[in-house]
Design brief:
Blueprint lengths: L44 H14 L20 H7 L2 H4 L11 H18 L3 E3 L5 H18 L7 E5 L5 H8 L3 E5 L9 H7 L4 E7 L11 H10 L3 E5 L12 H4 L3 E3 L20 E3 L11 E5 L2 E5 L16 H37 L4 E2 L9 E4 L1 H7 L3 H10 L6 E2 L8 E4 L7 H20 L1 H5 L12 H6 L8
Parallel strand pairs: 2-3, 2-4, 4-5, 5-6
Antiparallel strand pairs: 1-7, 6-7, 8-9, 10-11, 11-13, 12-13
Helix pairs in contact: 2-10, 4-10, 5-6, 10-13
Length: about 475
């Protein structure tokens, strides 16, 4: 039931005191006046509170249970982060304040930028991008501007592996590149022969995620970097999977020239439902003159926004990004320290490999290699044997109180299920997840209809995804 259906004429919640100020007549142009009253629900305060509290109970979150959403790094977010962003000086700040009164915020952003540069092996960074895909676009615009600044107008090709996140080719295309897909090896890694075949003086950049979307570390990364640079192109790092290597190795040391990060993944900010996010972009020294304006600089003890960037790609966002996401990331980095960040990565990899071993008893794993922070189930044989799809398994998991992993991605694995346990989950949680999968596999063999018609216990049963895609309803109609 929606809040509108609980509406009844005359019901009110909070009532403002009588206005004792002198009324001022404001002449509003007729064409701007509303022709009929605004449709708002009329409900009492208890009804409003109960309605949204009940909706919150129905929602699933990482605070409620295990959330192994592959590639999304749904780690538990320390409540310390939330406490810090509640400081009045952070949540009450306004971007139009004079810089003299925002020195604390500027210092925080400057130091965060420096920490992220150290973690990634970059020389300079912008914190402006509002999300990961936005960071990708900024990185691609920097790559394009770099080549154009050299008069290298032929370089219009962006190479993207077939296992990449879907936003990679989209971002490259939006930046004006022609996208060329690279086929992966049977193991799911970059095929060096395939890469060599595509390298020429028209290639501008290779977009790479390392570890990749199969959770595998690109063992030939140094050779890949050399091949790209020898061809006069740039190497771009998609930071979606940095959680596996944070504090252990750095993209900059692997040969990457441009890096985007997801603060709302690796650096512990709640994400989902569209945001908020933060997608900083770091660059090597030879690219820092192309960063979007303004950049944060320090002069003695004074922090300021510098608009004097010689070859800037321009402004990419209003103001300077999602500040409170930066505060949470800054808090996380300081509270963890360098040893803590490294330990988090090690635990993420340990958890993933432990769970991979358990799950491999019931499903095939897409790659036999030791994984990093996530692994991908290949359910092809399971589907042939039982007639139960991976989609059905994901829906049945909801009945057992577990959020489903990412399914049908990456596209190079048929009936894929991508599992990322993150470092914040206990052995008991991983054992429980594996036990639930074992039960579902047994159900698929003995009573498949139970799995095929799942979920059975959720507030809403299985949705008609096709109709929802073809005929979306974006607003409430009375």
């Amino acid at each position: 039931m929606t809040i509108f259906e609980k509406s009844a004429p005359g019901r009110k919640a909070f009532k403002l005191p009588k206005n004792d100020l002198e009324e001022v007549e404001i002449k509003i142009p007729e064409h701007l006046k509303r022709k009929k009253p605004l449709m708002l629900p009329e409900v009492s305060e208890p009804e409003v509170v109960r309605h949204y509290t009940n909706l919150a109970y129905k929602n699933y979150s990482v605070d409620k249970g295990f959330y192994p959403l592959g590639s999304c790094t749904m780690k538990y977010n320390p409540k310390l982060n939330e406490a810090v962003v509640a400081f009045e000086g952070f949540y009450g700040i306004h971007p139009y304040q004079p810089w003299e009164s925002t020195q604390g915020a500027l210092k925080l952003m400057y130091e965060l930028k420096e920490y992220l540069c150290e973690i990634t092996g970059m020389d300079d960074m912008t914190l402006q991008p509002a999300a990961g895909a936005h960071g990708e676009l900024v990185g691609m615009l920097i790559a394009r501007a770099y080549h154009l600044s050299k008069g290298d107008v032929k370089r219009r090709i962006a190479l993207v592996p077939d296992s990449a996140h879907g936003t990679n080719p989209a971002s490259a295309a939006m930046a004006g590149f022609e996208v060329v897909e690279l086929k992966s090896t049977q193991d799911g890694l970059v095929d060096l022969d395939e890469l060599k075949k595509h390298l020429n003086d028209e290639v501008a950049v290779l977009m790479l995620t390392n570890p990749n979307t199969l959770g595998l570390f690109e063992k030939d990364i140094l050779e890949i970097a050399k091949m790209i640079h020898d061809a006069g192109a740039l190497l771009y790092y998609d930071g979606a999977n940095l959680n596996a290597i944070m504090g252990r190795t750095r993209p900059g040391d692997m040969g990457f020239d441009i890096v985007h990060l997801n603060l709302h993944k690796t650096f512990s900010t709640p994400h989902g439902m569209g945001g908020p996010g933060s997608g900083p972009v770091g660059v090597k020294a030879f690219l820092k003159d192309f960063l979007p304006i303004p950049v944060i600089r320090k002069d003695g003890e004074r922090y300021y926004l510098d608009f004097n960037v010689p070859k800037t790609i321009g402004r990419v966002r209003s103001f300077y990004g999602n500040f409170l996401v930066m505060v949470k990331a800054y808090t996380y980095i300081l509270s963890m320290g360098s040893d803590g960040l490294e330990h988090a990565s090690k635990m993420a990899v340990l958890n993933a490999n432990y769970l991979r071993k358990l799950v491999s008893k019931y499903f095939d794993i897409a790659s036999p290699r030791v994984c990093m922070h996530e692994f991908v189930v290949d359910g092809s044989k399971f589907v042939k044997q039982t007639g139960v799809r991976i989609l059905d398994v994901a829906k049945r998991l909801l009945d057992y109180g577990v959020h489903a992993p990412t399914i049908y991605f990456p596209l190079i694995v048929h009936e894929a299920m991508m599992v990322e346990p993150t470092e914040t989950e206990s052995k008991e949680t991983l054992d429980h997840f594996a036990a639930v999968l074992e039960k579902i596999v047994e159900e698929a063999k003995t009573k498949p209809e139970v799995v095929k018609t799942a979920p059975h216990t959720t507030p809403v049963r299985r949705l008609d995804d096709v109709s929802a895609t073809k005929y979306p309803v974006f607003r409430y109609k009375k």
